[in-house]
Specification:
Layout: E1 6-10, H1 21-33, E2 39-48, E3 53-55, H2 71-74, H3 84-96, E4 102-104, H4 111-120, E5 128-133, H5 140-149, E6 157-163, H6 185-198, H7 201-205, H8 207-210, H9 214-217, H10 225-233, E7 238-243, E8 247-248, E9 252-253, E10 256-261
Parallel strand pairs: 1-6, 2-5, 2-6, 3-4
Antiparallel strand pairs: 1-10, 7-10, 8-9
Helix pairs in contact: 5-10
Length: 269
């Protein structure tokens, strides 16, 4: 079996579940392109912990971790089964890498997990293992987590990081819209795409100092950190494909990244 890619998905507002828009179209296309995974391991920007926590539930509940939204959102369930055996393997891989994981046998799927998964796999028939991220440890930590999980891809497990390529909710009331975009969004997403194309992991890990408008695009790190987990899972040599899924509300860039392991270059005779 060829290794599956790893994915980074910008999941947007919870309202994406009701109005999928362009990101829904792109994820539906990806679902057709990808081989059917045996399971999904997904790290959401909405599950934060000091060290990696792995969800080992046999039937993860649908967590509605938001308020003030329409009743229809709270009625949605994503009844995908869990995968305790895969969770145990995730634990083993992270432990072997010295990352001190713990298991939570009751953890469900927050909206950072079930919203994009519902767009990728609406039948909810693929087992899912949720994984926490560590918001205070910087990009190098999720990158190391992803590197540790890379072997899962050889077994048909789809590794996903779910966040947002730009995420500044202070701009909700700034008057931005499809007609008036926040000025920092496109320079930031262009810088990420450029460094991904160049394979410049060092610059990407140092985005806080090097990327234009980094603090404006991400006042806090948690929604970008899953990108590094997906990047790490692709291995040391990778090909990154940016999938443009638009800019919601003028300030939430909805980019998706697909990471494939790049074939080693064949030396000339």
């Amino acid at each position: 079996m060829n290794a599956l890619p790893s994915l980074y998905i910008s999941h947007g507002s919870p309202m994406t579940a009701l109005h999928p828009g362009k990101v829904g179209e792109r994820l539906a296309e990806l679902a057709v392109q990808l081989p059917r995974p045996s399971a999904v391991v997904i790290a959401s920007a909405h599950w934060l912990a000091h060290a990696p926590v792995v969800g080992g539930s046999t039937q993860p509940e649908t967590i509605h971790d938001f308020h003030g939204f329409p009743r229809a959102l709270f009625d949605i369930r994503y009844p995908a089964p869990g995968a305790p055996a895969i969770a145990a393997q995730v634990m083993q891989l992270l432990d072997r890498a010295g990352l001190a994981p713990t298991l939570d046998a009751t953890r469900g799927l927050d909206h950072g997990a079930w919203v994009p998964l519902r767009l990728l796999y609406p039948d909810a028939d693929i087992p899912v293992v949720p994984l926490s991220i560590q918001p205070h440890r910087g990009p190098a930590h999720p990158y190391a987590v992803g590197r540790a999980l890379a072997p899962l891809r050889e077994q048909g497990v789809l590794v996903i990081g779910s966040g947002s390529i730009t995420h500044n909710l202070h701009d909700v009331r700034a008057g931005y819209s499809e007609e008036r975009e926040a000025p920092y969004v496109r320079p930031f997403i262009s810088w990420i795409e450029e460094k991904m194309a160049a394979g410049d992991v060092s610059a990407l890990l140092d985005y806080r100092r090097q990327a234009p408008f980094a603090e404006r695009a991400h006042p806090t790190d948690e929604h970008l950190l899953p990108l590094y987990l997906a990047l790490g899972a692709a291995g040391q040599t990778f090909h990154a494909q940016r999938i443009d899924a638009g800019i919601d509300h003028g300030f939430l860039a909805m980019d998706i990244y697909r990471f494939d392991t790049a074939r080693a270059a064949i030396a000339a005779p």
